[in-house]
Specification:
Radius of gyration: 16 Å
Order of helices and strands: EEE
Distance between the termini: 34 Å
Structural class: mainly beta
Number of helices: 0
Largest sheet: 3 strands, antiparallel
Helix content: under 10%
Mean pLDDT: 79
Low-confidence stretches: none
Oligomer: single chain
Strand order of the largest sheet: 2-1-3
Amino acid sequence: MPLFEYKCSECDHKFEELVANSESKVTCPKCASEKVSKLLSVFAASGTSSSGSSLPSAQSSCGSGFS
């Protein structure tokens, strides 16, 4: 099951939810509102590539850390 980030329109609470499919109802765990929107999220990857060089990790802003 994919993990998605959401933000509640009622109380501005941000949370993550495991969602079985796109038709699953998601409610805010703080105020129980169904007025939530899916957020775009960035995943972090770190380690080394097959050539031995380091892989960049996700930063706080889109595209940072790349030249």
